Amino acid sequence: MNLESLIVCRNLLDDKIFNASADEFETSARLIEKAEQIGLCGDIYKNYLIYTLAHEKNLISETVETSGGKIGEGLKNAFIHDIEILFDGKYKNLIPLLKNYQPTEKNKIESFAELEKNLEHLTDAEKIAEIFIEHYKKFGYGDIATFRAFRWDSEKKILAGIKHFEKILLEDLIGYAHQKELLTKNTQAFLADKPANNVLLVGARGTGKSSGVKALVNEYYSEGLRLVQITKPQLKNLSEIMESLRKFASKKFIIFLDDLSFEESESEYKYLKSAIEGGVEPRPENVLIYATSNRRHLIRETWRDRDESHEELYRDDSVNETISLSDRFGLIIHYYAPTQTEYLEIIRHMLKKKNISLDEEKLRIEGLRWEMSHSGRNGRTAQQFVNYFLGSI
Fold it and tell me: How many folded domains does the chain comprise?
């Protein structure tokens, strides 16, 4: 292929697989290596080309992302020009082994599988270009398209994809229908570019607060929702993290703070207060903050703080400071320990997912016996019982 004529996708010139000077066996060896690394199957030259266009940054994918999905007619025509060169069929002269390759382990990236399917048997350059543009709008490119959740790498100052993200769904969370409704409605409004609130999920331990947030990302991944988990020490980098997310304008991000609370001596909460409301630079429109905590008031407060003999001159100011952080979350969702019936229903649902049906009386006796010897009724205790039960049969 005459890649020197490329305009938008000139990054392909740096890939040795598309190097015109390489012979067919050298190219084949590199392709098979990539197929095993990525999990490509079938016509692996074509599918590696699709993967590269989907994964590597180029002018068209970057523009779609930073503009929030907009693309100019001139840039679109330049992309169609490149697609005509890349998908002209000349690559089919390679050895037969590459036409129907089966890797050791197939690629499981949902966005890539959808793209492959949509491009199957297509030859029209304009239609191929439109499918890629829609892919960039829906999933993004690179790691943003590949991963659902990220952590912040403080050293490199980049988002790092979480490869083995928990695949929990909202339907897996038994009970708490009202809490799930509040959480999903707020998130749906966020995705629809309507006003939405930062959320604090607070209440009893093991009740599924963190699982609910994780399930949202699995539920709305194809609608552009991503999760970024940060730690308490990283709160000082919050403005930097938000600025990094701002450039992915076509995606929505939940910054997730799990099990959040502060001692009096910890000052990181001030960065969070400023980021939520009150800073000079506004929070990006594509970012919300969701936090979970066992405390309604995130900053620990003691009776001494309310004692009139407390040495601080303006005692009310101290009290207001301790409760002002949680007040900045527009939506506070409370989670309570499940009833006995709800607890047993959680166990029943978990066992059903493993194709196990337990006698009602045995389920009640064994489940309650486990609860009494552990830390009370909650989803975590139910999961621990199910693990024990599955391991003993």
Answer: 3
